Amino acid sequence: MQTLGLSDSTLRTEGRLKSLFWPTIQSGADVDYLGAQGYWVCAAVAFLSLVLFIALRQPVTGILIFLFYYLGGVGVRERSQFAAIAVFVMYVVDTMFSPFSIVRIIVSALLLSNLRATLIAALWRPESEEAVMPPRLGATWGEKFADKFPTWLWPKFRIFYYLYAVCFFVIVAAGFVAEFAHGMH
C-alpha cells in the first residue's frame, strides 16, 4: 500500500481532539478525509432530522430538512464551498435557536472544520502537489456511499441544491421573522 501511495506513513503529531476539530490541512488527502467526515456528519443530521420529524408527525418538514442536509453533505464531499457554507450556517442558526446541547456544539465544530478545509483547498493551485486528491476506492459499502455516490450524484443535483438552499434559507428566515413578530404581540 505504501508503494502505491495509498497509505499515510507519516506519523500524526496532533492530538486526537485537534485532529478531529481543527486538523492540519496540508494535502489533498487531508481535504478528502474532512470531506468524507462532513458527508457522514451531514448524512447523520439528515437522517436523524427525518426520523425526528416523522415521529412528530411532520413528515414534509422532515423530508425538506433531509434534502437540505443530505444533498449539502454530498456537496461538502465534492468540495463545494457553497454547500459547506450553507450546511454550517443553517446548522449554527438552528443551534442558536434550539435548547442548549453539547451534541449540537460538537456537530457545529465538525461542520466548521469541514468548511475550513473546503475554503483552504479552494485557494490551492490545481496543478500544485498539495491539491492532488487521493483515489476514491469503492471496495466497501461505506466507501461506495461516501466516495462513489457523491461523485455520481453531485453533478446531477448541484444546480437544484443551489436553488433549493437559497429557497430554504428564505423560508427559514421568514419563519424566524414571523415567530419574532408573533412574540411581539
Structure description:
- The chain is mainly α and 185 residues long.
- The chain has one domain (26-122, 140-184).
- 73% of the residues lie in helices and 0% in strands.
- It is built from 6 helices and no strands.
- α3 (59-77) crosses α4.
- The termini are far apart.
Give the percentage of residues in beta strands.
Answer: under 5%
Count of distinct structural domains: 1
Number of helices: 6
Instruction: Provide the helix percentage.
Output: over 70%
Distance between the termini: 66 Å
Gross geometry: globular
The chain-level mean pLDDT equals 83
* CA-based gyration radius: 18 Å
| Largest beta-sheet details | none
The tally of beta strands, per DSSP, is 0
Strand pairing plus helix content: what structural class? mainly alpha
List segments where confidence is low: pLDDT < 50 over at least 5 consecutive residues: 1-13
* Strand/helix succession: HHHHHH
Question: Which secondary structure elements does this structure contain, and how are they paired or packed?
Answer:
Elements: H1 16-21, H2 28-55, H3 59-77, H4 81-96, H5 102-123, H6 141-184
Helix pairs in contact: 2-3, 2-5, 3-4, 3-6, 4-5, 4-6
Relevant terms:
single chain; 185 residues; mainly alpha; 6 helices; globular; disordered N terminus
Short description:
The chain is an all-alpha fold. The chain has helices spanning 16-21, 28-55, 59-77, 81-96, 102-123, 141-184. The protein has 6 helices and no strands.
